[in-house]
Amino acid sequence: MLTRGRVTVHPEYRQFLGELYPAIDVLHERWVDDPLVLSCAGGSGAFDCALSVSAIDLGDRARDRVSDYLLIPGDRPKGPVDDDPADRSKPRTGGAGSAARLIEQAKQIMRAHIEEPVSVPAIAATLGVHQRTLERAFRAAGMGTPLGHFLDLRLGRTQELLTQTTLPMLEVALACGFGSAANFSRVFKRRFGLTLTRHRQRGKVAFEVRFMSEGED
Hints:
The chain is mainly α. The chain has 10 helices and 4 strands. The model is unreliable at 72-96 (pLDDT under 50).
């Protein structure tokens, strides 16, 4: 049993953990290095923690190599990839296979930063390509824009938290990268045509009906 110390955990479980272990400090941090335990909150927190530990134990060069390996499996371009003036209708990523790999790498970064979103230019820079190259790859794959896809991922996480937890709306907003509750509510309703409260009610009813039908089988 945890009787003292400082920890963090995914926003979905912070309130529950604090109630279960009132003697500990549950912090709203990405990761916490306490003498008793090393804890992380979500994928991006674990990533930052791993990089920090690598730097402390093995040095900055090892940290950079770990970062490259975790974020970008396989070969990574050594620098920004210039637009191809001969054919601007196609992403200059080395063919369909390379474009698909570029998209998957971008999606990995997005999934790791649901709680603290990064900009599309930052994602492109991490992947070693120009922003327009990344945007063309997404459009060519019928996925719209990288920014739109990132928003879809965050709103998908919102739906999960609304229907599977009792977290307050503000905590759901923060867990999905929305700093303003008002903006969060506006974006959600514009995308799904429902208020946050109404979506939570409908989602919980659907879950209960599905659970009851499975129990009858």
